[in-house]
Amino acid sequence: MKEIERKFLVESNEWRLLKCTGHSHIKQAYIQKSEAQSIRVRIIDSLAILTIKIGKGLIRDEYEYEIPQLEALEIIEKAGLTVLQKTRYYVENGSDCWEIDVFEGKLAGLCIAEIELNDENQKFELPSWLAKEVTSEAAYLNANLIDRLL
């Protein structure tokens, strides 16, 4: 499966005025990560997912597998993995659904908006509350943000 997403820094809280269709608390840790591939364990509320991502930039291959939450917690504990935590809000801006990640702990204050696309050339409205695009900036990949927690 292909993941096509664009990422932007969020510069204001205006997005909080939009219709929110839900939110999730996310904990994630990386078993393996490099510039072009990663394997992560993610717990979204009570759902646990093992994800493999291959590639870099706008389009990446992504494979996801649901696993028991207890196994996800055991992997994190036994491997001594650092856990990144954030709350993800799903907000509607016109016909687009944005995922807004509000990071916690040492990353508090960082807020990143993502939009999933069906096609790399898909048009979408850029909301006024966005700052610069960071899709191609490796520093803003969650796999690299987690290094700031060490």
Question: What can you see in these coordinates?
Answer:
Helices cover 10% and strands 51% of the residues. It is built from 2 helices and 9 strands. It has helices at residues 69-79, 142-145; strands spanning 2-10, 19-33, 37-44, 47-54, 59-67, 84-93, 96-103, 111-116, 130-133. Strands 1-5-4-3-2-6-7-8 form an 8-stranded antiparallel β-barrel. Strand 4 and strand 5 (59-67) form a beta hairpin. The mean pLDDT is 96.
Low-confidence stretches: none
**Ends apart, CA distance between termini:** 31 Å
Q: Any guess at the CATH architecture?
A: Beta Barrel
Spatial sequence of strands, sheet with the most strands: 1-5-4-3-2-6-7-8
Can you tell me the CATH class? Mainly Beta
- SSE string, helices as H and strands as E: EEEEEHEEEEH
CATH topology: Hypothetical Protein Pfu-838710-001
Helix content: 10-25%
Query: Number of DSSP strands?
Result: 9
Number of domains: 1
Oligomer designation: single chain
User: Biggest sheet: strands, sense, closure?
Assistant: 8 strands, antiparallel, barrel
Under CATH, the homologous superfamily reads Hypothetical Protein Pfu-838710-001
